[in-house]
Amino acid sequence: MEYVIAIVVLALIAAGIWYLTHRAQGGDDEHIIPGVTKAAQSGDVFAQYKLASMYYEGKGVPPNSAEAAKWYLKAAQQGHVEAQFILGIMYERGDGVDRNDDQAYQWISTAAQQGHPRARSLLESDKWLLYLDAKTPEKNGPEEKADVPDAGGHISEVTSEQVEEYIRKAEDGDVDAQYNLGVIYYHGEGVPRDFEKAYIWFRKAAEQDDADAQYNLGFMYGRGEGVQKDHTQSLQWFKRAADQGHSAAKAILEKMTRSTVPGRK
């Protein structure tokens, strides 16, 4: 009998501890809301993220996805990578905000550029690969350098001797020859069309900071031409070209990863 009483007493003690612990936790959440809100309103990015999470999960406050999205946005605009990722998911689902794939992609890709692993993985899903393909403007193909002029954007009547000369110069490190070989193989001018060889030569020129080659690599990675599709790499090469003042690359980046100003089209 004493054994049974002891078990009952222990069970009651455990239940009491469980109740008091959970009550205290709830009370703590409610207690810190005013302080977290004040800090968030003053611009503290970590408080903004904390407040967003509390509204999203209903900790200390009733669940409110719209209010959560509001504070995730403020934190995301200050570069909080997890807030950027969650906000992208909320836009994708229409959770607390109007469903908007453009906004979803922009925030998820912004998080990916900061190294967020789940964001990077998500961008490789079929949905976002198809999304980016639809958003990427059409382009006839790479244009050649000034030393092989042609108004039509192609290299005309390239002979095998000229190709051999380009290869010789390219292998010696001549960046223009490397780029032009990329164009030759991309268009199949004087040689069989070969995206893989085009990629190799564009890559060599791009690594020597040729902005046009970097720009073309952005498209090839985005389309999976001569290389496996990789939209993170696509963004990186467009950015490298844009950083050198390449106007077309800047325009592409503006469409692919817009600035974090809300409502910007």
UniProtKB/TrEMBL annotation:
GO terms for molecular function: beta-lactamase activity. Its EC number is 3.5.2.6. The keyword Hydrolase applies. It is an enzyme of class 3 (hydrolase). Pfam families: Sel1. Keywords: Hydrolase. SUPFAM superfamilies: HCP-like (SSF81901). The keyword Hydrolase applies. This is Putative beta-lactamase HcpC. It comes from anaerobic digester metagenome. The lineage of its organism: unclassified sequences, metagenomes, ecological metagenomes.
